[in-house]
Amino acid sequence: MLRKLLIGTAAVVAALWATNTSLFGPTLEAGKTRLLSHRGVHQTFSAEDLENDTCTAERILPPTHDYIENTIPSMRAAFEHGAAVVELDVHLTPDGAFAVFHDWTLDCRTDGTGVTEETPMSRLKELDIGHGYTADGGRTFPLRGKGIGMIPALDEVFRAFPGRQFLINFKSQRADEGQALADLLNKNPEWRKATFGVYGGEIPTRESLRLVPGLRGYDKTSIISCLSRYLALGWSGFVPAPCRNTLVIVPLNYAWMLWGWPHRFIERMKAAGSEVILMGPYQGGDFTAGIDHAGQLALVPDNFDGYVWTNRIEVIGPLLNPHGNSPGQTRVGR
């Protein structure tokens, strides 16, 4: 009886291994690793004791460039460094524009004051978004005067980068913001193609997904629902509903737990209409940690057929494609 039990157990283990190993899975095409640039090329800052209302412009590291996040020059630089997708943040203003700007209020980065979504686009265009950046506790402001008039509207971004793709981050919990974006995309098919996906505030994210056919996106609740259900059921190859037709976020430090990681997992997600985005290590905060240095990039599987989220596109882009290959071309080392 014991012998039969051991044989049966071994058979189950072998079947699970055979179902989920990438050794015998479909052969993935080399060179498909794509980069998703968070905020474009931007100023980096200390993440120590970071909270939701921390003014990150007041804690930047000594600048090595003049790029400011969420601006057209920073996005252009990100694409030039190899980004396939650029992430940007939006706020629906009283005059019906989507302002591309990170912060909920203007006081931290700009020479203005007030709530971003309550400020007309015409006023936002007058501000200096480099005003508040300092690396030495306010003794010097190296970007002051260099960001005047540089808050773009979302339609400006789309017009500036035909054929490029963007991941749109809703900063609010307003349903009308999701409806307004849906209106914009449904009326402009080229801008719909330019929208890789949406995420952020659960209410506008889900509203835009409801109103725009085929649009993919996620929020924190949907990420957890997808990954937890897949951990429970993925051993069989089954892809649960929260992982279908969406963007599947995978933290680097938890990827090994996913059944079939990496190639079987990715093939299952693709067959279910989803794309996989590999993030940096999740440490209990939000899902925006990136693959930001060579040591982390070395942990990305070879021939990874998905997207790699990075906060340092100017570092990771050249490491991933040292010979300047365009996104989707052959990957040449790390």
UniProtKB/TrEMBL annotation:
The keyword Signal applies. Keywords: Hydrolase, Signal. One of its GO terms (molecular function) is hydrolase activity. Residues 1-24 form the signal peptide. CDD domains: GDPD_GDE4_like_1. It comes from the Bacteria. Its EC number is 3.1.4.-. The keyword Magnesium does not apply. Residues 49-320 form the GP-PDE domain. This is Glycerophosphodiester phosphodiesterase family protein.
